[in-house]
Design goal:
Radius of gyration: 25 Å
Number of helices: 12
Order of helices and strands: HEHHEHEHHEHHHHHEEH
Helix content: 40-55%
Structural class: mainly alpha
């Protein structure tokens, strides 16, 4: 009896190892929604997982699921899975019923406050729980220190929020997700789509701040690249940036007071603001990294959204009279 038990456990352990290596060695990464319908059998679920590219071997997955879990515990619903997840991780998801609760879309240029208000409006949780982790879009409300989990956060001043790092994208919120889990999803996405693709990380935080300014200033990739160069030239010549979006950020959008005493106010202080003023998208970050050289020093956004560039202040004043009246 003792021998048979040992054999059983050895075979089981071997199956787990085989499942782990076979099911996780996929040729192409896939991330998508997976649906389990009421009444579906273990066999059907296993086959569907294989057909949809989440596992490599449906039979081994079936065996692992059957021998170590009660099939009756599987919860019907929609799950967010990816092909790099282990078999045990997928099983835990469907046994625990960690289904997709909500689809959220974080827009380029949103601030932490915008994101928190949006999530509260979605009835996911009180926004104060979000602020407890991410901090707020103002001084004196720093984020939870997550730099041990995300290397890029070591570049962020500890007294500031996670502004700039909450990557704009579409996310699927699971049933059991807390504000911390949602924030870490955004940070992991930033890590994958931004941090891991930047070769020179020396001035990374400045690049992120610049990207956040570009995001709030203009639409269109080429215009963003042009403005990137204008801002960089102003910084090199110690010329005030005088970017309206920084004043609005310093005043939390309430009023436009260019004299507000804030390290975010680029009318009052030269150089970049102390931190990002928005959460920029990939395009704005690429524009910050790849500016287009030009002879312009000024720009404005016309009422139709067109960007008007000027080589000098006199030309800029004329353009303001033409396009902003």
């Amino acid at each position: 009896m003792l021998i048979s038990k040992r054999i059983f456990f050895c075979v089981t352990a071997l199956l787990i190892l085989i499942c782990f290596f076979v099911n996780n060695y996929t040729a192409h990464y896939k991330e998508d929604l997976f649906v389990i319908r009421e009444g579906e059998t273990l066999k059907t679920i296993s086959q569907n997982l294989k057909e949809e590219g989440f596992i490599r071997n449906s039979r081994l997955f079936y065996i692992l699921l059957y021998f170590h879990n009660d099939p009756k515990d599987i919860k019907a619903g929609i799950y967010k899975l990816n092909s790099s997840m282990g078999s045990s991780e997928i099983i835990n998801q469907i046994i625990n019923g960690n289904t997709v609760k909500e689809k959220i879309v974080i827009r380029e240029g949103w601030t932490i406050d915008d994101i928190a208000n949006y999530l509260e409006e979605k009835n996911l949780f009180n926004k104060e729980y979000f602020f407890n982790i991410a901090g707020k879009s103002e001084l004196g409300y720093p984020s939870l220190d997550l730099s041990n989990e995300f290397e890029f956060l070591k570049y962020k001043p500890k007294n500031l929020s996670l502004e700039g790092f909450l990557f704009p994208d579409t996310y699927y919120i699971n049933q059991n997700d807390t504000p911390e889990i949602i924030i870490k999803k955004m940070l992991s996405n930033f890590e994958k789509k931004v941090w891991n693709k930047i070769d020179n990380k020396q001035n990374f935080y400045d690049v992120l701040i610049l990207s956040s300014l570009i995001e709030k200033e203009v639409r269109g990739f080429e215009d963003k690249q042009m403005i990137s160069h204008v801002i960089l030239k102003r910084l090199e010549s110690n010329m005030p940036l005088q970017i309206d979006a920084t004043v609005l950020y310093a005043n939390k959008g309430a009023v436009f007071d260019s004299k507000v005493d804030s390290p975010f106010n680029t009318y009052k202080y030269t150089g970049l603001p102390i931190g990002p003023i928005s959460n920029p998208g990939k395009e704005s970050i690429e524009a910050a990294l790849n500016p287009i050289s030009n002879n312009y020093w000024y720009y404005l956004s016309a009422k139709d959204g067109t960007t008007i560039f000027s080589e000098n202040f006199e030309e800029h004043k004329i353009n303001k009279n033409i396009y902003l009246r």
